[in-house]
Amino acid sequence: MLNAILIILIILILIAGLYFLATYNKFVTLKNRVKEAWSDIEVQMKRRYDLIPNLVETVKGYAKHESGTLEAVIKARNAAISANSVEDKAKAENVLSGTLKSIFALSESYPNLKANENFLELQRELTDTENKLQAARRFYNSNVLALNTKLEMFPSNIIGNAFGFKAQEFFKLDETEQAAKQPVKVSF
């Protein structure tokens, strides 16, 4: 009888140990996926930051009287580059997306600009980058959701909190980006 109890106890300890190892490893995997997803976002943002000065220079030649719009784009780009936290980065990126739309709206008033191959190529590349950035944001947010859910669920939250795993911030749309979805108003 004592041997049977001892065997059951050993089996229970083994099961608990395996659960602990599996849960810990799952947290490490989720944390690394969040890092990887954030890295994808940073790559796309860097690509966009690099394209913007070329776009502004191209537009400058055709829309010399639109310096306010161009300065707003450069200011938004610089703010996005210097943002540090996920929340600040999301806000700055949302503002930048809105200002980029104002440049594309300018092309409607300048037919020569609208027909310029450099401008069209930059517009295509920026649109492509925007699409990739949105996909990277969705990938990031799904990984953050998985990590945060695991951190909140019982009993995995005990292991997660014991080893210092932290919930991550979502890269979310805010009111600024919601406003950026509205049609751009350009006045002359």
TrEMBL record:
One of its GO terms (cellular component) is membrane. It is found in: Membrane. This is Protein LemA. It is a single-pass membrane protein. PANTHER family: PROTEIN LEMA (PTHR34478:SF1). The keyword Membrane applies. It comes from the Bacteria. The chain crosses the membrane at residues 6-25. Belongs to the LemA family. The keyword tRNA processing does not apply.
